[in-house]
Every structure is written in structure tokens, then in C-alpha cells.
Amino acid sequence: MEYLNDIKKPSKKEQRIAMESYSALAATLQELHSENPEIEIEETTEKIKIPLKALKLLAKILKATSQGKPISVVPIATEMTTQAAAELLGCSRPHLVKLLESGEIPFTKVGRHRRVMFEDVMNYKNAKKQEQEQLLIDMMKSDEELGLYDS
């Protein structure tokens, strides 16, 4: 997936600017009541109407950037190739194909090629993460019951 290759950790300067911008935007968002507020670009004095949801997303992006986290924005309905989906899950493409063929992740075929929805891949990834967390909790409880874990 091309955009996954372009993701880079923000520089210290970008983090500092993002923190300043986030603080100002977060304070401003609390005072907004319009669904499509108008913002002004200071350098050009151009005014632009922006959906409130987009401004809230920008605030989340600025907050993550200020914390040094790399950011990528992907439209939810995006179709992905099996290679891109495998990269997102951190597995091989043949393993992903097995997941698709077993019905664990929905897919469609375009000619001979399988396509998966970004949302379906993320749902699978999140479900697996929850399963892992539950297994860890169960293991800890089991260890406590056996006296192997000090609480």
C-alpha cells in the first residue's frame, strides 16, 4: 500500500508546532456551535468552511503528531489488495489468503484478484487484539488461582 510507505515519525519541530496548534484548536472547538465553521488562512486571508467533524479529526491528528506518533488517514470504504491487507496485519499474503478463503475476513473477487475492504481488515485486527487481551487476562487469573502470580 503506497501510503503506508510514506508514513514517517514527525520531527521534534513538527511535534512542538502540533502541540501548540492542538492546544489552540481544542480550546476553539469547545466554543464552536456551528456544524460547518469558517476558518481563515492567515497567510492568504482566505476563508474556508470546514465540517466540524473534519476539524475534530484535525485535532486528533495534531494531538497524535505532538506525541511523536506517525499518522495516516485512510477512507474507511477503501478496497485493498491482498498484499496491502497482509502488510497492514503484519502477516504474509498466503496467510491472508487462507483467512479470506476460510471466511474469517470477507472479500470480493475482481476477475482473478481478491479485494478486501479496509474496514473488514481493521475489524479482524481489532477482534484478534481483543481475543489476545482476553487470553492474557485468563492466563493471569489462572496463575493467581494456582498461586503463581502475586497480586
Q: Name the shape in a single word.
A: extended
Name of the level-1 CATH class of the largest domain: Mainly Alpha
Q: For the largest beta sheet, what order do the strands appear in spatially?
A: 3-5-4
Radius of gyration, Cα only, in angstroms?
21 Å
Biggest sheet statistics: 3 strands, antiparallel
The count of β-strands is: 5
Distance between the termini: 44 Å
Tell me the fraction of residues in β-strands, as a range: 5-15%
| Total DSSP helices | 6
Q: List the uncertain runs.
A: none
SSE topology string: HHEEHEHHEEH
* CATH fold topology of the largest domain: Multidrug-efflux Transporter Regulator, Chain: A, Domain 2
How many independent structural domains? 2
Decide which structural class fits the backbone.
alpha+beta
Features:
single chain, 151 residues, alpha+beta, Multidrug-efflux Transporter Regulator, Chain: A, Domain 2, 2 domains, 3-stranded antiparallel sheet, two-stranded antiparallel ribbon
Question: What does this molecule look like?
Answer:
With 151 residues, the protein is an alpha+beta fold. The chain has two domains: 2-66, no CATH class; 79-145, Multidrug-efflux Transporter Regulator, Chain: A, Domain 2, CATH 1.10.1660. It is 56% helix and 13% strand. It has six helices and five strands; from the N terminus they run ααββαβααββα. It has helices at residues 2-5, 12-31, 52-66, 82-89, 93-101, 118-145; strands spanning 38-41, 46-49, 79-81, 108-110, 113-117. The strands form two sheets. Strands 3-5-4 form a three-stranded antiparallel beta sheet. A two-stranded antiparallel ribbon has the order 1-2. α2 (12-31) packs antiparallel against α3 (52-66). The longest helix is centred in the C-terminal third of the chain and has 28 residues, at 118-145. The model has no long low-confidence stretch (mean pLDDT 89).
